[in-house]
Every structure is written in structure tokens, then in C-alpha cells.
Amino acid sequence: MNIETIVDPSFTSKSFRELTESPISALRGVSAADARALSQAFGVNTIGELAGLRFVKWANAIKTLADEETDTMAQLAKEILLDEAVEMTFPASDPISVDAGITRIEVPPEMVNACTDHQAAAKVAANIDAGVAKGAKGK
């Protein structure tokens, strides 16, 4: 890390131990007024005290854990269902029209046969056939 990018020029020659005892205003972008506000709000006056502030530690821990967190099974399921719903509404296989910005050919609902006008029509038909065959064996 280039220390010149995080502390004011008058503090660049200090060691890290010296920087922890330096005023918060030594941090680049923190004004004297900002340092006073931190002192009044949290009772911290040095970089070391700011770093040791429990709220800063908690915030850093939450951020670190959030970066590593994965979606729960419920969140993944919702995402998959949403993706599938969008794909069923606007299938990628629909022809694209170049006229007047129309990107989907709409068919009136009463003309749609869900068994044949769906991307999973083959699976639907197979399941229907399997159900019919199973029902015939049971009679």
C-alpha cells in the first residue's frame, strides 16, 4: 500500500506506530471539523482509537462476512423461479421482428395450446403420455 494515498503529506514519513497516535485528521480526506465530530460523537481522537472503536470493528466484520456470504436455498429458488417465469413470458426462441420495434409475436390466449406452445412441450407431452399409460395399467 502506498502510504501517500491514505495520509496527509505531513504524516507520510511517520511509522505505522506513530500514525496510530496521530490525530484522525492525518487521514487523507478527514478534515479537522470531521475529526472534532468523531471526537464528540465517539470520544476518539487518534487513528488508533478510531481503528479500535467497536462500531468500526463491527462494520468491518459485517462487510468482510457479507463479501463471503452466499445466497440461501430460498433465495436461489426464488431467483430460478423468476428466471424461468421471465423465459416463459419472453422465450429466447421467439422470432425477432425488425418492424416498429416489435420483439415478440403475441398469440391470443384462447389460441394457445399449453401442451404444444411451451418450451417444455416435449416434457409435458411425455408426462401426459406416461400418466395415461399408468392410468390404463391401473384399470
Observed structural traits:
rod-shaped; 3 domains; 139 residues; single chain; mainly alpha
Report on this model:
The longest helix has 18 residues, at 121-138. The chain has 139 residues and is mainly α. 52% of the residues lie in helices and 0% in strands. The chain folds into 3 domains: 3-68, no CATH class; 71-106; 111-139, no CATH class. It is rod-shaped, with a radius of gyration of 32 Å. The termini are far apart. The chain has helices at 16-20, 32-42, 47-52, 54-68, 73-89, 121-138.
What helical percentage do the residues reach? 40-55%
Q: What best-fitting shape do the alpha-carbon axes yield? A: rod-shaped
Structural class: mainly alpha
Number of H/I helices = 6
What order do the helices and strands follow? HHHHHH
Alpha-carbon Rg, integer: 32 Å
Main sheet characteristics: none
Q: Averaged pLDDT, please? A: 80
Number of strands: 0
Distance between the termini: 78 Å
Low-confidence stretches: none
How many domains would you count in the coordinates?
3
Proportion of beta-strand residues: under 5%
Question: Which secondary structure elements does this structure contain, and how are they paired or packed?
Answer:
Layout: H1 16-20, H2 32-42, H3 47-52, H4 54-68, H5 73-89, H6 121-138
Brief characterization of the structure:
With about 140 residues, the chain is mainly alpha-helical.
